[in-house]
Every structure is written in structure tokens, then in C-alpha cells.
Design a protein that fits this description.
The complex is a heterotrimer. By secondary structure, chain A is of the alpha/beta class. Chain A is built from 20 helices and twelve strands. Classes of the chains: A alpha/beta, B alpha+beta, C alpha+beta.
Chain lengths: ~450, ~475, ~550
């Protein structure tokens, strides 16, 4: 990698890092125990583990200060690409550093320079061969849908995602929810075994070309299915649809992407489905884990001139301030509202919404550095101890699975779909006066 | 024997020299061979340079009257006392910045008089005797009773001028400026900063050194504006917990100027009562003064009073305006008087004192241990007073136990026993005087000895300043 | 001991590495250049980088000790192998960068001890208990800590022991050099020394004794700057506030705001000129009527009140920034009044208003959101890192510590240094004619520092920044505006006897504890200086004050960094 291998603007942004360390902390910590914003820093401990450290390493490579080293590759692998650094940095620096874009650029260059860590390459090989990062057979991908019938073409395409598709423990809930939707009169399409990776992980690992190819394949499938709405059960997928695909120059016109929590909430509001108080949890309190992908990383990417100009003798000003990412427009409220509909109180963790702490499940860390992923999960679960709740709910199958693996009794981690499934019921159009198509769209 | 430095007033008469061979607490030491009376800081420097050249031990003394605690009694033969008590100039006073610059000989008996025309008064320890040098008191980190403005043990010092043991004139804090002091003042500088300059803080190093590192010639000192309205109160209870809690909260909230807690014995001494009267006083009293200086002073004192009443009620302390016929305001006035004789000596002619630092949060436990010790020993029948002065705005406290006794009473060993028990219970003897001179270092992990050795080597390489003042120096030898 | 590589880098000998790994575990020792790059990044508060932000000198290794004993063992290991070291806490402002290629950077991140003792309004902290953590824990007890001018992610221990310690709330939270209580220190020889009550194992509350306040050997106005060993634990004073518990933070990134607690007001007073402001200040300092007073230059208020630079630039140009952010409104105080009772608040509020009006001032009309923004930034000191937002490059002036008598003069000197170059078309970033941040300490004296705001990507702008910086020293030598605070490193020696014997004494301290100069830094006195040079340096002041020399030095600094 040489100076020219990073876009000049991006390198300039990296070079503007002042090493203030704000990227390591949530902007207004509520305790010492949970002040960290950065699982990677918590694991690596040297400054290199932080966003600032990674930007400086990228700058060092670009400026020829040093070459790639095994330690650097391992350090970069510890980053979950959760974007908490970006949110924190912007409190100080708004448009002038943009760490997350720097991290995306760094990983892309590592791939371009043939320096992607071996484990990352292995993950990509699995995605290429099997359509999922776990290397599980395509033939099993649609097992969850056994007994359900889908239309080859429909206005709504259901996307499940790689994690839930193969998580047999979630299949009943998944099926129950989809069946309810169909009972409510919704016509649904589903890609079945042809559903592939959404490209989020490929993007996070720096394989941007492959991510784009996956995206193009998916969008082609959506158009072939005649769908105008994609409803996904995957937080990675909703994140990549809204915040990454638009960067790729793919034509997304006419397609709306919804997370299932948003979709269900809308259907509830329209009266197409109803949520009854949860027999098991109603009247109780749960804590909610904001998944990075579903929350701050689902903020829609706006096509705009993202460069900065130098004004007033050296003040770096965004040409499109309205397009800057401040983690404001992620999906935070829909899952909380669904829980409320089921009579469940949500207790906020110290680090919630845009300041949520990554559980370690994303960014390839789980696959590459399991110890780092485990530490992140344990750190996140420790936050539950500050609450009255023993139950941590996540609206992301990946997070729920990962946290569930590391939780210790009496605390438990529950996937939101497992709470929704038994309490979701269809309403007939006679009762509501709304047709399924109206309701869905 | 080497000649004394030229041009400095000196006295070598036996009575004068002998007066420095003992003080009110320690027995006779070697008499100094002379007493020198420099009249300004340049003469002080001349004396210190001379002492370095002649390897003469110097004992700096700034106070007059009956001294105590042994720190001005020579520990070596052939020492020369440097008596600064004649350096009594008020160099500058400024109500706008609430600061004055005084020489080392200005004492508590006179300072308020000389500051009054400038609308100021000095921060004072608890009823200091008249002859006590203000600078010497502050240098010894003697606690001032104004807890609200005691931010740090360096208070109330601003910039200072020090002659180090090596004979160098050092300007410290914001006194370290271009030009003479007169020129600095004319330019508008007020020497309001004590720390620094640069990487060292020699004022702080000199504090607590008991004359063993250098001599302070003059100092800028923070002062209090003369209040327009002042209101004092006794907050009383039969247990220490109520008044300590009330005091701590009041100090943390900075709604008092003067704030301290005393028991009935100590209060009796402060009020000038016979010891027998102590029994009629409340067991514990938090004495609080509230002051308004400039802005709507009545209204200020009124809300502070109201808040203090609320604090007192919450912690179970009762408010009294008068105790045994003496009003709290009268005690406030009394605290600003400096008696010629130490108030602790008034009841029986002599006293023993024991003072140390301690967290306020656990003072009660310390008092319990001390009381248990006193109850079972030979001092059981004697009155022992307690004075608790919050420092650093209530971060910790100076705890003082005072036992008035007759001049001939043989109580030294028992008093030491109390000091030892206190040490075991966690007393931090930050000022190694009297009975604590050696006890202060018994728990030291070696750090204090090492750092005192360093300070001595760096500031007084010829060891001319009050040699062997600290027991650890004797060990260093 | 160590082999030389290119670019001022040395490699660690296998023996030294093996010993360090034995002390700390291999995971906590690195000499990987990529992992060390974050410790060779010359930027942040007060720094002027070169075109390339990497320093020319890199550490030979970076280590992560977890205990004082491990620090001491690392220091002794350095001694055995003829290596130097440099402690590093949070590393803001590159104060943790090494200054010799044989230096090990001791990153203290793992030493984050934090214990609040609420009844005694203090905490015990390690080097990586950051201000934001300390504040979060303190607030649970109705307390806060002093946050210095590096923002909430800094190390209070580092500020208290090793750097300066001033910060915008100093009116009620003093400064960390005065908030430091008992202390623990690893000498440059690897001894562990404790000060105050900690030396007697009696807690961390008392800073001095038994006997002399020997802490004064190790820190004055400026701390050890990494040049005199490693401080590993201190007691630190906390300050009661009128709210217990978490800050009620509202708003969205980046404009986080905090709801003002009951009996709290945030006012912005504007004065017709600096003489009026000075006169009012002397009144505002009486009776402890204000909780915090801060004078920020108007453009910095503008940065605070706008969410992006783009918004700031746009609103500057179209004139829609609120009154406090308009350049002609420099004579101003942002005033925080934090009371506990209604009666107290009424007295404070009315008194402040009366004083301001009496001195010809008036109050800017602030929207509630603006008030909450300013309050949030006051309470967290988030202001300070945000100062770097505009261009990513600031340095700061000498610092003034003296009576408020000097307020107009400090502003005048600030203008003298900046006005030409901060005007449109000047070499610095456009801004206020002076950029003095001014606040009072403990109701008594003034702190002022002129922020020099340059374009870090332009050599000419960096040189102009350097010229303004060193120009301040030259101007101060000629006509002092007060005690010069930031006399860091060699500048002390050039300033010479004017500041007493401090550099000479500090050098003695350095020699006494570190005769081989193992604890290396440029932010302490020059070690081992021959007495003749010590004497000659101050005599060179006229040379250093010469405009041509200043310009030449500035050019050099603009090119090579500082």
C-alpha cells in the first residue's frame, strides 16, 4: 500500500485524528465499568486497538512508515466494525475524521494489498462457496421454512439471513411469525436456498468488490421476485441495505428495505396483526441490547458529495453536512415498541441506542479472534448486572446467539423473535378494514 | 570560633542566647552561640551564605513569646539563631485581590490591625498567641479555621521569597517575575499563585520543614475581606456524629467561613471558662460563622443561615446562639483576638497537645479508641479536649487533643502512650512536633525519610539549617 | 543492548525483551512498528506537527504494566539494559511520545484503579482512571472532579502529577496541582516512593508530611512531564455539585446537551469593553457568587453551538450565529450559577445580574437548547477537545496567571499575536482577533491562554502558529502580563532567573533522582546542563526575541514540527 492507495480525502481524514481517545469512550459514561465504547481496544489494550490506533496504522502504511505486520493484521481483526468510535468521535470532530469510513478504507486496502488475515480469507471462501460465513450447506438454508408456502413473485420478499437460517433453535419462532404474516393475508416471496449472503460481512472484512457482487445478486433476485419491499430478519442485512448498498452505486430504486421489527410494528398499527401480552414476560422488565448493525449502522447512507472543503483559512467543512452520519436514524424504537405492545417494560442499559456496546458478534471477530468476541460479550453481559433485569433481549439473531453462548445463569439472553412468535396473531381484514397489501405498503 | 557575619545586628549575651535553649515544651538544649537579627531578606541571605561558608548551624525563628514544640531549640552545639521577628513590614495590601505581602516577623497579634485600613484581615489558626509569626504558622501548615477557603495545605500562601539552605534567593509562585518587588507591584502583579514556577514548588517543600531547608523572607498571603455582616452559631449535640456530619456537609457546601468541631473541654478553654464549667456545655459543638462581604450581605447570610439550620436539623444537631452566657458572635470575636498566653495554658498553666491528620469520615472511630485508652490509663480523671478542624474544604481533618495540666504534672509518659495508641489507630502525624517527633516516622515505609533526605541534599547541601530536626535525618546522619 | 535500524529507531535486544516479557507477560510487550505507531503520533492539544504527523523518534518498545511493582520492575529493567523510558497515560497532546530512540513507552492503560470516598470528597485513582470515568463515578455521590483543558478523556493523575492541571471550572474545582492528595511514584531508578499519608499506609488523603512538603520537588506549576519517573497512584479531591446521579443528557450526537438541574442558571454576559469586564469581574469574584466563569473567544462559542464546521462556516458568513458567537462580542463571561436552594439561587442570580448591569453589560438571549449545550460542555469540559474540530490543529500560548488586573492587557497581547494572521487572508485560521480562554481560580486569580488555531496541513500556517507561540514568550519577556504558566522544557532556561531558581532546582532534582537521564522527555528541564550554559542561555533572550530569529525558528518548527 502506498500513499496513492488510499483515496486522498480518506487519508487526509485519518491524518486529522488528534489521538484524543474519545473514540474509546461513550461520550457521557455513566460508570467506570461501562465507559468503554470499543471492544477492540478492550481486547488489544495497546492504542492500536482503538479506531484512532487503526487510523494511525493505516496512515503509517500509506506514508511508508512501516509495512504490514502480523500483529497489525491481528489487531485489525479484533475490530468488530461496530461504529461506536464513529459516534463518539463525532461529538468532538463532526465531519473532519469520520473513523468508520477510515476503518472501511483500511480493510479494503488490506484486501487490495493481499494482506487480508487468513481467517478473513477463509470466511470469504465460505461465503463464496456456501453463501454463508459458517460454511453450512445451501441445501439446509431453507429448512426453517419447511411446510410454508411462498410465492415465486410477490410484493414482499422475506429475507432471513445466514444466522437465523441455520439456527435450528429459532426455526419454530421464525416459522410462526412468517405463518402469522401469511395468515394476515400477506403474499410473501422467499428466495429459499438461493438466498445468499447479504454482503455485510464481506464489506466489513474489506472485500468490497465481493460485497458489491453479493449485493447485485441479491437486488437482481429481488427484482426477479417482483418485490417492492424486502423484510429482513437480519440486522446485518438491514444495515447493509440501508447504509452500504447505496455506497456501491447499485440501483435500489423502487425497493424499500424494512427490518422485521419495523414491519411488524407497522402491521400492528394498521391492525393487520396484533400482539397480545406475553404470557411469560408481560408485566416484567427486560433489558434491551441495541445491536450495532440494527442501531447506529442502519442510519441510511445518503448519496452526496462527501468531501470537505477548506474554509476560512483552514477550517474543514463538509460539502454535504446533511449527509453526515451521526447515528441518529438507526432502528432503536421499533423493537422497544413491540416489547411494550406485549406488556414488557424495557430497562435501558447504561450504553444504549447509538451508544450501545458491541457484543463482539460482528465484523468477523467471532470467526477470527474468538477470545476477543468472548470478552466483548462478557463485557456487555456485565452491564446487565447494573439493572434490575435478568433478561437481555436482542432483536438480532447473531447477537442473541453470541451473547447466549456466554451468558451465565441466572441471566438469560432472549431473541426478540422468541418473544414475538407466541404472541403475534393475525387480524382479519374484516375486523380492520385494511387489506393486507395496503397494510404492508 | 568564626566571626559572625558583618553588618547584621547580633546579640551574644547569655540571657538572650539561653532563652533560645529551651521552649515551653522541650527541656534545655545547647544554647546558640549568637542570635542574629537580619532586617530584610537580603540580610537573611547574607547570614545563610555566611553559615554555608562557616558551616554554622542556623535556627530560624520568627515568633516571639513562649515558643513550643521544640523546633526552634538547637539540636547541635554552636548554632546561631536567625531571629526574623523584627521583619514586620506590610509590603503590600490589596482589598481588590484580597491579598497582602508581609515579612516573616509579622505576627497574629498585629496583623489584623495593619490589614484593617485595607479592608482585610488574616486567615488564622485557632486562637494563635499574639507573638506567633503569621508566616511561621502557615509554613508549619498550622490549620486555619476558615475551612471554606482552605483548598490545599499550601493555603493561604501566594508567591513567596525564600532563601534556600544553600544561600540562594528563590522567588516562588507568581513572585517569580522580572524586576524588583516594587516594580512588580507597580506593574499590577499581585503574586497570587503559590505553586511553581516551572517544575518545582519550593514554598511547598519548605512548608513543614521546621526551618530545616531554608528561610522565608516574605510572602504574599491570601486574606479575607472584612465582612459587612457576620453571624455565628453553635450547633450542638451529645454525640460527635451529629455535629461532625453537619459540619462536613456545611463545609462541603461552603456555607460557612469558620467551621470546626470541639468537645466541651476544648470549648470551655476557648470561651475562657474554668474547667469545671465544661460539664455544663454541650458534649459536642460545631462552631460556624457565616459572612457576607460585598453583595447583599444580609441576604447572603440569611440563606446560608437557613441552609445551615436545615443541615443541622437533618443531622440532629441543635442550634444555640449562646452557651453559658457567651454568644457565638462573642466567641467569633474572641477567635480574632490573639492572647499573649496560649489559651490552652490558661486553665492550669501548662498543657499537652497531640495533633494529627485523619479522614473526617472515620474521626469518630479514632476518638472512640482514644477515649478507651484514656479511660483505662492514668489520665482518666484529667480533662482532655478535642478540636476537629476540617482541611482542604473538608477532605480531611486536623484532629487535636489537648490536656491542660499543672506545670509540674508528671504526665509525659501517659501522653506519649496516648500518642502511640493513636498512631496504631491510624493517626497521621504530618507535623512531627513534640511527642510525635519520632512517632511520625514509625509507620513510614521509608519514603518520607528518603524524600526528606533528598530535600535536604538539594536545598541545604551543607546541612546548616536546623540540623537533625527530623529523627530520620539523625538516622541518615 | 539495542541495534540501530533506520529512521531513528532501535530494536530491542532479545535479553531485554525476554526480561520484559517475564515481568509483564509477552502479550503486554510489543516492538511491532504498527502497534507502536499510535505512540509516535505528534498531534493534539498544544502540538505543532510536521507535514507528516509521525514523530521522527519512535519508542524501542511499548509495554503495558498493570501494577506499581511491574512499573518499578520495568524501570529497573531499563536501567539494566541502558534503556530510557517515558510514561504514557492517555497520550493526548502526544505528551506520552518518547524523545529518544532508546526509550520504552510505558503505557499505563491497565492501571485504572478508581475508588470514590464520598464522605471525604475524594477519590483514589491510577493513571488510566480518566476524567470521564471519575466524573461518572463521582456524580453518583453528588460530586464531580476537576476536568482539565484536555477534555473528559484525559488522565487526572497525569494532569495532577505531570502536567499543568488547569481547567475551565477552576473557579470551583481549583486545579489538579492543588487537588492532588497523597501520591505514589516510581523513581527513575525504580524505587517505589509514596508521599503524604500513603507513605505511612494510612490512606490517600494527605498530600504532605511527615515534615516537608516534598511533593514540591516533583511538581510545581508544571509537573514532571515524564522526566522524573512514573506516578502510579494518587488521592484526588472531588467537588460537591448541586445534582446527584447521572447527567440528564438530551439531544443527539454531536450536540449532546444536559438539562440544567434545579436552582441552576447559565448566563452569558456581554460587556462594552474589557475594562468594564475587568471591573465587573472583581465584583463577580466576591462572595463566591458565581460557580463557574468562562470567557471563550466568540468563534469558539460558535464552534460549540454548531453541530458541524459546515454549519459554523455558513452561519458565520450569513451572520446568523447567536450574539455570544459574534466576533465583536469578545468582552464576555459565560456564567454558571449552581445553587442548592431557591433562596440561594435568588441571591446569586440577582447579584450576578445586578453586577453585570451595573458595569454596563447586558445578557445575551440564549435559546434553551443553547443553554443546555453550554451547560453540558461546562459540566463535562467537552468544549476543549472540540476546539480542535475546526482544523485539527491548535497550540496554545504561555498562559497568564495573575490578578484580573491584567485581563485587558492579556486580551491586547492575544490580539497582538493573532489579529493579523487570524483575519481573513491571514496565515492562521480565521477567528477572533484574540483567542484567549480566561477563567478564574478559586475566586481569586486569572488564568488566560491564547489558543492559536492553524491549518495543520499547511506549512505556512503551522509556521505562523509557531511564530505566535514563541512570540508570546518574547513578548512576555519584554512586558510580563503575569506569571508565565507554560514554561515547559528548554524555554525555562532561556527565561532564566526571571522565574527564580526553578529550572536550576529542577535540574538538581533531576540529577539527584535520575543522574543517567533514564526518564527522558522534552517537557522537563534540560538535564545535566553545564553551569556555564545555564548562565549563558538567559543572556540569549534578546537573540531569541529578535523578529528575524523568531521567524526563522518558526519556519523550522512549521517544517519539522514541535
Amino acid at each position: 500500500m502506498n500513499d496513492a492507495s488510499l483515496p486522498g480525502e480518506r487519508l487526509a481524514s485519518m491524518d486529522r485524528c488528534t489521538r484524543c481517545s474519545q473514540c474509546k469512550f461513550v461520550p457521557v459514561p455513566k460508570s467506570k465499568a461501562h465507559m468503554s465504547a470499543c471492544p477492540s481496544m478492550d481486547f488489544v489494550e495497546f492504542h492500536a486497538g482503538s479506531a484512532s490506533g487503526q487510523l494511525i496504522m493505516a496512515s503509517g502504511i500509506a506514508h511508508g512508515e512501516f509495512g504490514y505486520t502480523p500483529s497489525m493484521l491481528e489487531t485489525v481483526s479484533a475490530c468488530t466494525m461496530c461504529g461506536a468510535c464513529d459516534t463518539a468521535c463525532k461529538v468532538n470532530f463532526a465531519e473532519i475524521v469520520e473513523p468508520l469510513d477510515g476503518l472501511y478504507a483500511l480493510r479494503a486496502r488490506m484486501v487490495a494489498d493481499g494482506q487480508s488475515p487468513k481467517r478473513h480469507r477463509e470466511v470469504m471462501d465460505k461465503i463464496a462457496a456456501f453463501g454463508n460465513s459458517q460454511g453450512l450447506p445451501r441445501s439446509d438454508r431453507a429448512n426453517w421454512a419447511s411446510g410454508l408456502a411462498f410465492l415465486p413473485r410477490a410484493d414482499i420478499l422475506v429475507h432471513v439471513g445466514s444466522v437465523l437460517s441455520y439456527d435450528t433453535g429459532k426455526h419454530d419462532s421464525l416459522q410462526a411469525i412468517v405463518r402469522t404474516l401469511q395468515q394476515a393475508g400477506l403474499s410473501l416471496a422467499y428466495l429459499g436456498q438461493d438466498e445468499g449472503s447479504c454482503g455485510m460481512l464481506a464489506w466489513d472484512l474489506g472485500y468490497h468488490k465481493q460485497a458489491k457482487a453479493l449485493a447485485e445478486t441479491f437486488i437482481r433476485q429481488v427484482r426477479q421476485a417482483g418485490a417492492r419491499t424486502v423484510v429482513t430478519f437480519s440486522s446485518s442485512a438491514i444495515s447493509v441495505y440501508r447504509s452500504i448498498y447505496p455506497r456501491m452505486g447499485i440501483d435500489l430504486s423502487g425497493i424499500r428495505f424494512l427490518h422485521f421489527t419495523e414491519f411488524l410494528l407497522a402491521l400492528t398499527a394498521k391492525g393487520l396483526v396484533s400482539l397480545t401480552p406475553s404470557g411469560q414476560y408481560a408485566g416484567g422488565t427486560v433489558a434491551f441490547h441495541d445491536t450495532c448493525k440494527l442501531g447506529r449502522l442502519t442510519e441510511p447512507y445518503q448519496e452526496a458529495d462527501r468531501s470537505v472543503t477548506k474554509e476560512m483559512g483552514g477550517i474543514f467543512a463538509s460539502r454535504s453536512p446533511q449527509a453526515l452520519h451521526f447515528s441518529r436514524n438507526g432502528i432503536y424504537d421499533a423493537p422497544r415498541a413491540l416489547l411494550k405492545h406485549m406488556g414488557i417494560e424495557v430497562e435501558e442499559l447504561e450504553r444504549s441506542r447509538e451508544f450501545s456496546y458491541c457484543c463482539g458478534a460482528q465484523g468477523g471477530v467471532k470467526e477470527t479472534l474468538p477470545a476477543a468476541a468472548k470478552m466483548a460479550a462478557r463485557n456487555r453481559l456485565a452491564e446487565l448486572q447494573e439493572t434490575e433485569s435478568e433478561i437481555l433481549v436482542s432483536a438480532c439473531g447473531n447477537c442473541a446467539h453470541h451473547l447466549g453462548k456466554h451468558v451465565r445463569a441466572p441471566a438469560t439472553v432472549i431473541d426478540l423473535i422468541d418473544i414475538l412468535a407466541p404472541n403475534l396473531a393475525p387480524c382479519s381484514s374484516r375486523e380492520t378494514g385494511v387489506t393486507a397489501t395496503e397494510g404492508a405498503c | 570560633m568564626t566571626a559572625l557575619p558583618r553588618g547584621i545586628k547580633a546579640d551574644i549575651t547569655a540571657p538572650v542566647r539561653d532563652a533560645f535553649a529551651r521552649d515551653g515544651e522541650v527541656g534545655t538544649g545547647p544554647a546558640p552561640r549568637a542570635v542574629l537579627y537580619p532586617s530584610n531578606i537580603h540580610e537573611v541571605r547574607k547570614v545563610v551564605v555566611w553559615a554555608n561558608e562557616t558551616r554554622t548551624a542556623l535556627i530560624p525563628v520568627s515568633s516571639t513569646g513562649l515558643r513550643r514544640r521544640g523546633d526552634t531549640v538547637p539540636l547541635t552545639d554552636g548554632a546561631v539563631v536567625v531571629d526574623l521577628s523584627g521583619m514586620t513590614k506590610l509590603i503590600h495590601a490589596d482589598p481588590r485581590d484580597k491579598i497582602a505581602i508581609i515579612e516573616a516577623g509579622v505576627d497574629f497579634g498585629s496583623i489584623d490591625e495593619i490589614l484593617r485600613p485595607h479592608g482585610l484581615r488574616a486567615f488564622r489558626p485557632l486562637m494563635p498567641r499574639a507573638g506567633k509569626s503569621v508566616i511561621a504558622s502557615y509554613l508549619d501548615r498550622e490549620p486555619i479555621i476558615n475551612a471554606d477557603v482552605h483548598w490545599d495545605p499550601a493555603d493561604p500562601f501566594g508567591g513567596t521569597a525564600i532563601i534556600s539552605g544553600g544561600g540562594e534567593l528563590t522567588l516562588n509562585g507568581s513572585a517569580a517575575l522580572e524586576g524588583t518587588l516594587k516594580e512588580q507591584l507597580e506593574r499590577g502583579h499581585r503574586h497570587m499563585v503559590t505553586f511553581g514556577p516551572g517544575n518545582v514548588d519550593l514554598t511547598r517543600v519548605l512548608q513543614g520543614s521546621q526551618g530545616s531547608l531554608g528561610v522565608m523572607g516574605w510572602a504574599a498571603i491570601y486574606c479575607e475581606r472584612l465582612p459587612k455582616v457576620e453571624d455565628s452559631l453553635f450547633l450542638c449535640s451529645e454525640t460527635p456524629s451529629a455535629v461532625l456530619a453537619a459540619m462536613r456537609e456545611a463545609v462541603h457546601r461552603r456555607i460557612c467561613t469558620t467551621a470546626f468541631v470541639v468537645d466541651r473541654v476544648q470549648l470551655a478553654m476557648l470561651l475562657g471558662l474554668e474547667m469545671d464549667a465544661a460539664a455544663m456545655l454541650p458534649a459536642w459543638t460545631f462552631f460556624a460563622t457565616q459572612a457576607g462581604y460585598v453583595h447583599a450581605p444580609e441576604r447572603k447570610v440569611a440563606w446560608q443561615r437557613s441552609d445551615l439550620e436545615e443541615v443541622a436539623a437533618r443531622h440532629g444537631a441543635r442550634l444555640e446562639k449562646t452557651l453559658l452566657g457567651t454568644s457565638a458572635d462573642a466567641l467569633a470575636d474572641r477567635l480574632r483576638q490573639s492572647p499573649r498566653v496560649c489559651y490552652r495554658d490558661v486553665p492550669f498553666g501548662a498543657h499537652k497537645e497531640l495533633f494529627f491528620l485523619h479522614p473526617i469520615s472515620s474521626v469518630e472511630r479514632m476518638l472512640d479508641i482514644q477515649e478507651a485508652h484514656l479511660r483505662t490509663g492514668a489520665l482518666a480523671a484529667r480533662p482532655v479536649g478535642t478540636y476537629i478542624q476540617p482541611l482542604a474544604q473538608g477532605t480531611f481533618a486536623h484532629v487535636e487533643r489537648v490536656m491542660p495540666h499543672g506545670p509540674d504534672a508528671d504526665v509525659g509518659a501517659d501522653w506519649r502512650s496516648l500518642a502511640e495508641a493513636s498512631l496504631r489507630a491510624g493517626a497521621f502525624y504530618s507535623r512531627p512536633h513534640g511527642v510525635a517527633r519520632d512517632l511520625a516516622f514509625l509507620r513510614d515505609d521509608g519514603s518520607a525519610a528518603r524524600m526528606i533526605g533528598a530535600a535536604k541534599a538539594l536545598l541545604d547541601p551543607c546541612n546548616v539549617m536546623n540540623p537533625n530536626r527530623f529523627v530520620v535525618q539523625e538516622a541518615i546522619g | 543492548m539495542a541495534a540501530k535500524t533506520g529512521r531513528h529507531r532501535l530494536t530491542l535486544s532479545p535479553q531485554a525483551r525476554s526480561e520484559l516479557e517475564t515481568i509483564l507477560g509477552a502479550r503486554y510487550v510489543t516492538d511491532d512498528p504498527a502497534l507502536m505507531s499510535g505512540y509516535a503520533w505528534n498531534t493534539g492539544v498544544g502540538k505543532i506537527p510536521s507535514g507528516d504527523k509521525f514523530t521522527s523518534i519512535w519508542p524501542i518498545a511499548v509495554v503495558l504494566p498493570a501494577t506499581t511493582e511491574e512499573v518499578a520492575a520495568v524501570v529497573k529493567c531499563c536501567k539494566r539494559h541502558g534503556l530510557s523510558f517515558r510514561p504514557h497515560s492517555t497520550g493526548y497532546g502526544s505528551m506520552g511520545c518518547v524523545t529518544s530512540p532508546d526509550s520504552i513507552c510505558i503505557d499505563l492503560r491497565r492501571m485504572d484503579h478508581l475508588e470514590i470516598l464520598p464522605d471525604d470528597r475524594m477519590a483514589v485513582i491510577g493513571p488510566y482512571a480518566t476524567a470521564n470515568q471519575l466524573q461518572a463515578e463521582a456524580r453518583k455521590h453528588g460530586l464531580t472532579c476537576h476536568v482539565v483543558g484536555a477534555g473528559p478523556a484525559h488522565s487526572p493523575l497525569a494532569s495532577a502529577t505531570s502536567l499543568i492541571g488547569v481547567g475551565i471550572t477552576s473557579q470551583f474545582t481549583s486545579a489538579n496541582m492543588r487537588n492532588m492528595l497523597a501520591w505514589e511514584w516510581v523513581t527513575p531508578e525504580g524505587e517505589i516512593i509514596r508521599g503524604g499519608s500513603a507513605a505511612s499506609d494510612l490512606g490517600w488523603y494527605a498530600s504532605d508530611g511527615p515534615g516537608p512538603g516534598t511533593r514540591g520537588l516533583l511538581r510545581g506549576f508544571f509537573g514532571g512531564g515524564g522526566g522524573i519517573g512514573v506516578f502510579t497512584r494518587i488521592g484526588i479531591k472531588l467537588f460537591p455539585i448541586n445534582q446527584k446521579g447521572e447527567m440528564q443528557t438530551v439531544g443527539q450526537v454531536p450536540q449532546l446537551r444536559s438539562v440544567l438541574p434545579a436552582h441552576t442558571a447559565l448566563l452569558h454576559a456581554l460587556f462594552p469593553d474589557y475594562e468594564a469586564q475587568r471591573a465587573a469581574t472583581f465584583d463577580l469574584l466576591q462572595d463566591d457568587v458565581c460557580t463557574v466563569l468562562l470567557r471563550m473567544p466568540p468563534n469558539h462559542i460558535g464552534w460549540t453551538l454548531t453541530e458541524t464546521n459546515a454549519e459554523f462556516v455558513r452561519r458565520t458568513r450569513d451572520g446568523t450565529l447567536p450574539e455570544p458567537a459574534q466576533l465583536h462580542n469578545g468582552a464576555s463571561w459565560t456564567i454558571l450559577i449552581a445553587s442548592r436552594s431557591a433562596a440561594e439561587h435568588r441571591w446569586r442570580d440577582e447579584t450576578v445580574r445586578d453586577i453585570v448591569i451595573r458595569h454596563g453589560g447586558h445578557f445575551a438571549v440564549l435559546q434553551q437548547e443553547e443553554e443546555e449545550l453550554l451547560y453540558h460542555n461546562f459540566a463535562t469540559s467537552q468544549y476543549v477537545p472540540r476546539v480542535l474540530r475546526a482544523s485539527g490543529g491548535i497550540t496554545t500560548s504561555f498562559g497568564v496567571l495573575d490578578s484580573f488586573h491584567f485581563l485587558p492587557k492579556a486580551v491586547e497581547m492575544g490580539e497582538m499575536m493573532l489579529a493579523k494572521d487570524s483575519a481573513p487572508g491571514g496565515a492562521l485560521c480565521e477567528g477572533s482577533p484574540d483567542e484567549q480562554w480566561i477563567w478564574p481560580h478559586e475566586g481569586r486569580y486569572m488564568w488566560g491562554e491564547n489558543i492559536i488555531h492553524f491549518d495543520a496541513t499547511s506549512e505556512a500556517s503551522r509556521a505562523a502558529g509557531a511564530l505566535a507561540l514563541i512570540g508570546h514568550f518574547a513578548a512576555q519577556w519584554k512586558d510580563p502580563v503575569g506569571m508565565t504558566g507554560l514554561l515547559v522544557g528548554p524555554i525555562q532556561d532561556v527565561t532564566g532567573p526571571r522565574i527564580g531558581k526553578a529550572p536550576a532546582f529542577a535540574r538538581k532534582v533531576k540529577t539527584y533522582f535520575d543522574k543517567d537521564d533514564r526518564s527522558k522527555t522534552k517537557e522537563y528541564v534540560i538535564p545535566n546542563m553545564p553551569p556555564l550554559v545555564e548562565k549563558i542561555l538567559p543572556a540569549l533572550r534578546p537573540v531569541f526575541s529578535n523578529q528575524m530569529v523568531l521567524r526563522a525558528m518558526s519556519k523550522m518548527l512549521g517544517k519539522n514540527g514541535m
